[in-house]
Amino acid sequence: MGTIQHVTDADFEQKVLKSEKPVLVDFWAEWCRPCQMIAPVLEEIANSQDKLEIVKLNIDENPATTAQRRVTSIPALHVYSGGELVKQIIGAKPKSLLLKELEDYVG
Q1: Residues 5/15, Cβ–Cβ less than 8 Å
Q2: What is the pLDDT of residues 78-107, one digit of tens each?
Q3: Rounded to whole angstroms, how far apart are CA atoms 1 and 53?
């Protein structure tokens, strides 16, 4: 099962846009309480399935990708498939709601 990796401006294209699997990117920051609240939920989802890669991108450390992807509020969860943005989830949600939003990708 999956573990959550960190991506940066330097490897975003390779690890996310060129991935064979759909990828959920968690745009987050250290100071963001809602980001901290959903982190364990994303870990649980990553560990319970292998259809969807889950990665984290720290917006403070990676401003280029953050701006390029037009992330204006966090937590922002973007799902990319085939290099395209296919889903956006803004804000912290309980696991049941996140799984419902992601059901097309996690089965």
Answers
A1: yes
A2: 999 999 999 999 999 999 999 999 999 987
A3: 10
> Rounded to 10 degrees, what is the CA torsion of 19, 20, 22, 27?
-10
Residue type, 49: Q
Please report the pLDDT score of residue 106 as a whole number: 86
Q: pLDDT tens digits for 47-64?
A: 999 899 999 999 999 999
Residues 38 and 44: beta-carbon distance below 8 Å: no
- Which residue's entry shows tokens 């990665």? 55
Task: Report, as residue numbers or ranges, the catalytic residues.
Answer: 32, 35
Please give the pLDDT value at position 78.
98
Domain 5-101 is in which class? alpha beta
Q: What is the mean pLDDT of the segment spanning 30-44?
A: 96
Cβ contact 29:60 at 8 Å = yes
Domains in the chain: boundaries: 5-101
DSSP state of 46: H
How does strand 53-58 pair with strand 23-28?
A: parallel
